[in-house]
Structure formats: structure tokens, C-alpha cells
Amino acid sequence: MAELRPWRVLRERLLLDRSPWLRITEQDILLPDDSILSGYLLEQSRDYAMVFALISDGRVPLIRQYRHGLRTVAYGLPSGYLDPGEEPLACAQRELLEETGLAAAAWEPLAHPPTNTNRGTTRAHLFLAREAYPAAQPRLEASEAGLTVEFFDLADLIHLWQNNETLSLASVAAIGLALARLGRIESGRR
């Protein structure tokens, strides 16, 4: 097996800087075979935390809100961007409380995968929150107007997870990891 070598940046140019939300650079790259790849785009965005919260009756809250990129209403797990210097767990706890009004007694990290290994640096910090309970009224931001919280039992959540096209990739990953941790993944076959 050949040894993999990193790509070498020959030139980098900033195309867009809307920090901390989005930064896009263009690079000319020297590839390991000595060919040049021109105009390679990289994006930098903020890391975010996402929560699979399990309440005592076995249901899981999903956020239902308009997603402008899709131009439609979509489901997703409670999530939000990390504030500068904020730890991922603190962000996950804050977002769960702000979006659903829930807190949780037990927290476990599931994973912190990069969202796009080829084009970016953003990571999704995924958590399982057990023993979630009502703790406050949700406090929504202006961009979350119209957001609703819907609770799904695990069977309905698994059906949505396996069949719905409006869950984000991070939500799909977090649900799968949480269900595996809980020993609840079902094949869906009869």
C-alpha cells in the first residue's frame, strides 16, 4: 500500500469572510503526484452541538422548523453553534434548554465528527441526554420563529430516521449513534 502524503498549498486567497459564521478560501494545491489542482474551495464555519434527549416516558424531542437552505420545514434534533470559548457539552445543555425547555440528569458524548472531511473544518458534537425533564420555558431566537417541539416514541423516531428525507445528516448520525448506545436499533424488516 502506498504511503499517503498530504497536499501542499501553493496559494490561498480569501473569497468570503463572514466570520464567525462562514469563511471561504480558494487554494491552488500541489497533489502527491505533482499535478496541480487549482481553485479548490474550503469553508470554515462554527462547530455546533446536537442533542438526542430521552425523557422518562421514552420519547425524544425533535425540532420542527423552516430550514431556508431546503426551502421547507424539516425535523432535527435540538442543536446550536458553540459560542467562542464554549465547551461542547455546555452548548448542548444550553441549546436543549433554549429550544425545548428541557434539562437532563445524565449526559454522554456520542461523537464529534467533522461534517465535511473534504471541504471544511466544522465538527458536530453529538450528545445523548438521558432522564430529560421540563426545566423552563423555551427561549427562542428570532431565526427560530415558528419552531415547534414534537415528541416521538422510539418506534416512530426509528421510522422517521429510516424514511424521512428532511433530517439533516448530523441528526441522522446522532439518532443512529444514540439508538445504538441504547441498544434500540431495529432493522425495520418484518
What would you say this structure looks like, in words?
The structure is a single chain. This protein has 3 helices and 10 strands; from the N terminus they run E-E-E-E-E-E-E-H-E-E-E-H-H. The protein folds into 2 domains: 8-44; 48-182, Nucleoside Triphosphate Pyrophosphohydrolase. Strands 7-4-9-8 form a 4-stranded mixed sheet, sandwiched between helices. Strands 1-2-3 form a 3-stranded antiparallel sheet, with no helix packed on it. A 3-stranded antiparallel sheet has the order 6-5-10. The chain is elongated, with a radius of gyration of 19 Å. The chain is of the alpha+beta class and 190 residues long.
Write out the CATH superfamily name of the largest domain. Nucleoside Triphosphate Pyrophosphohydrolase
Global shape: elongated
What is the count of distinct domains? 2
What amount of the residues lies in strands?
Answer: 35-45%
Order of helices and strands: EEEEEEEHEEEHH
Write out the strand line-up for the largest beta sheet, numbering strands in chain order. 7-4-9-8
CATH class of the largest domain: Alpha Beta
CATH topology of the largest domain: Nucleoside Triphosphate Pyrophosphohydrolase
- The CATH architecture name of the largest domain reads Alpha-Beta Complex
Instruction: Specify the biggest β-sheet.
Output: 4 strands, mixed
Residue runs with pLDDT of under 50 for 5 or more positions: none
Helix proportion range? 10-25%
DSSP helix count?
3
